[in-house]
Amino acid sequence: MGQLANIALKTSGLIVLAVGLAHFAMPTLGYAPEVIAAVPEDQRDHFVYLGTYAIGMFLVSFAIMTLLVDPTHTDGLHRIFLGLMVMVWGTRIVLELIYPVKLSLFFLSNPHPVLVAALLMIWAGYVSAFAGSLWHCGERASSG
To answer: I want to staple 25 with a disulfide (CB 3.0 to 4.6 A). Which of 29, 55, 80, 116 is the partner?
Structure first.
């Protein structure tokens, strides 16, 4: 895998890590107080706190795995992980386009364009690493 694909992959991992960590601040700092107050308490506990913290933990886990992936390995597990991340982030882009975020988040009154741009950057990093892994695997197969 080329150096550029490695940089793209690690950049995606760092962006995912930042987004994941931001989820732990979202219930109290990310959403406007009136948004949180409008949700009944039982639903708030489940959808706002539990859901947001769980998403944050999933994202931090994805980021750690991404940052630990050795891009020189082209075994099946690395390719499976990278391929799954291409699908996960591609699906997240599609979901953002179908269901755009219309709530203000942190300092953004309209986070949708920023989210789409960030999601595209994350996805592109995984795509480049996955393609590089497939390319390198093909080179090994044709030379051996």
So the answer is: 29
User: Could you give the residue ranges of the DSSP H alpha helices within the chain?
Assistant: 3-23, 33-37, 41-43, 51-68, 76-98, 112-143
For residue range 87-135, list pLDDT tens digits in order.
Answer: 999 999 999 999 998 888 888 888 999 999 999 999 999 999 999 888 7
Instruction: State pTM to two decimals.
Output: 0.86
The Cβ-side half-sphere exposure at 77, using a 13 Å CA radius, reads 6
Indicate the Cα dihedral angle 94, 95, 96, 102, nearest 10°.
Answer: 150
Burial 37-70 (b: 16+ CB within 10 A, else e): eeeeeeeeeeebeeebeeebeebbebbeebeebe
List own/partner pairs for 71-80 with CB under 8 A and 24 or more apart.
71/1, 71/5, 71/6, 71/9, 71/129, 71/132, 71/133, 72/1, 74/1, 74/133, 74/136, 74/137, 74/140, 78/133, 79/130, 79/133, 79/134, 79/137
